[in-house]
Amino acid sequence: KQWYQRRVAITAGKNEYPKALDEHQKLEKQSIMAQCMTKEVWDKYKDHKTKNGWTLARSINTGIINPDSFLGCHAGDMESYSEFGALFKGVVEKYHVGFDMETMKHVTDMDVNKIGTALSDHAQKKIISTRIRCARNLSFFPLNTCGTKESREEISTLMEGVFSTFTGDLAGKFYRHTTMSEDEIKELVDKHFLFRGKDKMQAASGYHADWPHGRGIFVSKDEKFLMWLNEGDHLRIISMEQGGDIPSVFDRLGRGAAAVEKGLQEVTKRDEVYMSHPVLGMITCCPTNIGTGMRGSVHIIIPKLIAKIGFEGIDKVARSMNCQARGSTGEHSEVIDRVDISNWRRLGYPEYNLVEDMIKCVNVISQMEDEIDG
Description:
By secondary structure, this protein is an alpha+beta fold. It has 15 helices and ten strands. The longest helix has 23 residues, at about 245-270.
């Protein structure tokens, strides 16, 4: 099948217990879904459907089709998190270590003035670029895992109206995947702005269905504020720039998210436009992203530290500080002289705290680089 077509396990189509799961659960490395899913959970929810038609079988399809999946499940709408509660509670609490859905609540706060730790001068000199993004979904549509060609196109048309309300440094141009020229495609690809899909996990979840309809990218005039439409979640709001001015990037992200919300309220005449939950915060297709839906990252040059302790050693340091390390061109890319450092936590902490996590981690890693002779 083409990469953009939804792959559904045969057992999902028949709503039968996936016996392949028994084999997955014998593996040394299992998806989080496989660790939480049992025959009892299946029997409890197998005949349940959300109002959008999402089922337990569809929820776990990614992990059944791909036993090498890290997470292995997706939600189809906000209702999924309660309708299949035993599964998603287990997955959420296992991934977001320390978060208790019974006693805790997520709070969203993107106030840049609440960041209490400054980036050190020595760290700032090593940072090549800064990028912070957050995911948002619209409360009056199903998530894209459960969406249709029509729902994606409606979102795209709606957002085109919202983009026209942007002013100042947020103003820019919207490109639809279905109508952009070859020259525009090449330019956006060369600048590493354009998303192209082709992810087998996302294909199994339903993200890529009806490609490329309803997909698009918004780019501000100064190219520091971007938005992806219907790549996975409805909206991915992105703020970025060269260098290490993290507060500037975070401030722009907060202003952008607020401008989208205000524009949606004006265009739709609705008060609540973002899909959010009193406990789980911002709702996303993938349970790893709920809460803030935010990932902040910097690319930092640390050749001596890479040579001394390797990528794995740097990642160990980062994870001890609630962050993670990646290759600078992707999660599994080769590491030569620079790494990507980003926050790990998503749920249970306000956005400014997560930016502070990243700053503290970068300061320590930069100091470690400077302490190496040669």
